[in-house]
Structures are given as structure tokens and as C-alpha cells.
Amino acid sequence: MAQEEIRRHNAGTLLRHVHLGGALSRTALAERMRLNRSTIMTLTTELATAGLVREELPADTGRAGRPSLVVRPDSGQVYVLAFDVAVDRLVAARVALGGTMLDRREAVRPRAGADLDRVVEVLARFGRQLHRTAPPSSVCVGVGASYCGMIRPGDGMVRFGPDMGWVDQAFGAELGRRLGLGLPVSVGNEAHLGALAEQLRGAGAGLQNLIYLHGDVGVGGGIIVGGKLLDGDGGYGCELGHMVVNPYNGRPCGCGSHGCLEAEAGERALLDAAGRPAEVWGRDAVRAVVDDADRGDPAAQEALRQVGDWLGIGVANLINLFNPGMVVFGGMLRDMYPGAAAQVRARITANVLPVARERVRLRTSALGDDATLVGAAELGFSDLLADPLGVLTRTRG
């Protein structure tokens, strides 16, 4: 590796450590990166001069000897714009280095079919507002977006979004054009980004093997193996919601199949099982079933039990396949899981190999409904963290 590549790699690695971990001493950074302290000092000086980090004396200076300076991300100089397109809402945020959300906008998204123009119009307006209200001295270094569908890597094309009827919609390109910032929009699948967010900043922070299940109308998934997201040959991997769990007399799924996990454990499955009419839908309707079950309503309790059993079958299969250290339930499943946990655990006990189940933990998302937005922000920061000084030079130039 050439000297310049080594320097770029080390600068990015150091910035990633403080971006994700917060304030760290030079000594801690030297230990984590296995570099000598003089190299760390050179790197932190370069990054501080560029306005990416700050160095300061530690709060506790009672120890003998010269204290090691603390390095922390400078949250006032650079930011990314992050967007989240869910079935029922549109969210935009300005996110600082270090992951702090500085400002945000949110709007309801009607369930109106293929609505690319409206989605882009709303998000671009939000993005321009967030950009205008940023301090004049700060600079936008990236744009990341989460979408509830199958995304083609590279250009942000939504190849298939069954819940809203999107097929081959040029979401990334259109949003970038309407924003007018001269920056490309990096787009990822919402559950993939939720998995990364929970592994980097949430319930599974630091884990190398994790499965994230995201409920919206359907069920999406992201799988982290050895610290890396599984994306498949074309980038369309981990469509966990379309794993068939009920091949005989299964409910129809929006993908055209029957008995998929999202058909048996998604929003409509729960509401139908609880006897809710077809015109009742959405997150509030799901929460109402959960609340009714908590109050002892037999129909709501049976609905959660039934959906929980199908969810448990899916989770059991995933644990046998991937041996994760944790399964995280996000989105709508974060609301449903507590009332369905007994059935999920029963399926794990009955159907998972003993050595695979002995250490796995089941958790709800620590990032809540912002998991996918946090993942989009991390996508927006990815270029900066790969080449901090180069990206900053290009965006400021």
C-alpha cells in the first residue's frame, strides 16, 4: 500500500472511531489502531486543522504525568442530510459528525401507490430547508436515504417496492437533481440500514453477528455476519419478509407468492386476526391491538399469539441459518414483539438447534423509529470516513 493510501486509511479509521465512539484519548486511539502516539498526533492535528475533530484536556487530570489529550468529533463543521421513506411517513434530518441529529422535518405519506414525484418533492423541499438553516461555515459532505424496497446499488434505483407499487423508480437520481446540492444521493434498503444502525449505535453495538427484522406494512430484514452486511450478488439479499413460512394455505403476499413471513406476521395479518375491518390500518391500528391485548382483550391476545407463532418460525429458521448473537425487532415489530415474545421464544426452544440458541439474545430496537434514519445518515457519512481530507477538499472547493 502506498504511503498516501496508508495515511488516508489511517485518517479515516481514526475519524470513524471518534464518529462512532465519541471522545477518545490519543492513548486509547493509539491502542485501538495499533499505531504509535506520534502518528496519532499527526493524524489528529490534520483532522483538527480541517475542522473534523477537536482536541482538549480530559476532565479528570488528577493523575501524575502529562495527560493524554481527548479527541472528539467536531459537530459544527460538517454534516450530512439523511432521508427516510417509510410506507406512512417521510423524514429528513441534518446530522452532524458524531451522529447528533441537529434538525429534522417530517410529513405523512399517504398510501397512494407509485408516488415518486410527491415523495421527491417533499424530501427535496425538506432537504433545501435543512441546508439553508445550517451555519454558513458548515458544509454538507454527503446525502443518504433509506427506502422501503429493493434498491439497485450504485444509482439508488428502486427496483421493486411492493407495498407502494414502485417498480424501477429512479429515486436516488431524482432526489439528487431536485436537491440541487451537486452531491449524489446514496440509497439503501430500510432494513439493511436499520441493521447497520443497530450494529453501530443501537442494541447490537459492537456485535459482529446480528439479525434485524423491521416491520412496516410488511417485514424487512438485514443480516450482519462478521461485521459486514450481507447484500447478495445483485444487492438484493436479506429479503427476510419473503421467506416462506406457511407454504400450504398461506396468506397472499404483495410479492405474488403465498405464505411469506410478512404475509403471515405483517400489519394486515395482525389486524385481520384481531377482527379489525379492512379500512383500519397503520401504526396506530397496530398499537391499538397491542394495547387491547395488554388490557386482556381475548381477540387481541389471540391475534398476537397467532402472528407471534409465524414470526417465531421465521426467527427460528434465521437463527439456525446464521447463528446470530442477537435478533433485533424494529419498526412495527418493536410494538408487537413484547406481546408475541412468548410464542417467538417457544418456537426457538422447539425448533432451534441447542448450540445455536444458547447465546442468542432477543431485543427490541434501541434506536426506535429512527433506526432507518440513523442508517441513512451513516450511509451519507461513508465517503467522508473513507477519505476525510479528500472529501472535505472536494466539497469545500
From TrEMBL:
Q: Which domain of life is it from?
A: Bacteria
Q: According to its UniProt record, which protein family does this protein belong to?
A: Belongs to the ROK (NagC/XylR) family.
Q: What is this protein called?
A: ROK family transcriptional regulator
**What species is given as this protein's source?**
Nonomuraea mesophila
